[in-house]
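Subgroup meeting minutes
Present: P.N., E.W., G.H.
Scribe: E.W.

1. P.N. recapped why we're keeping a running log of single-chain structure predictions: easier to compare across weeks, and new members can see raw inputs and outputs side by side.
2. G.H. added today's entry (182 aa).
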Amino acid sequence: MNKSTIKFLTDFGPLLIFFIAYYKDGGGLKLAITCLILATLISLTIIFFMEKRIPMVPLISCILIVFFGGLTLYLDNPIFIYIKPTIINLIFAITLIAGKYIFKKNLLKIFFQNKLKLTEEGWSLFTNRWAYFFLFLAIINEIVWRTQSESFWVNFKVWGLLSATLIFTLSQTSFLNKYKAE
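Output recorded in log:
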């Protein structure tokens, strides 16, 4: 298996396992969360052995999955797993905004320094777009888990948030071309 396939599996495998475990023979949320925690820990271990380091985003995600998933299982209350996407997206949004406006550091520019070359205006706007998008995801997750059934939320978490992120990412192509640094 090549490195990009392994990276894809470590990024999305735990989410797919969560989904399958939830619906497999009426597994439900407890089984799905247990599988998600284990799959995430395994993914992080694989990433460590592949890269000889653990990138910040997967590490933060793993910590939050173990923490909120563990609380859900221990306290037998699904609210903790429901709010995890909200909290992750708020952390990302606040981090981008604080980095830009308080610490005067464009964190996306630092994160993507070897992959994207944008003008300073482009980096500023790109950071704002992602911060607003993360805020949008947090708000929409809150609306969905508070107004819909558990199974609807599971489908939304797996397919809705993933699709929204993919669509948003792809929609940035013309923006990135417009603000590309020469």
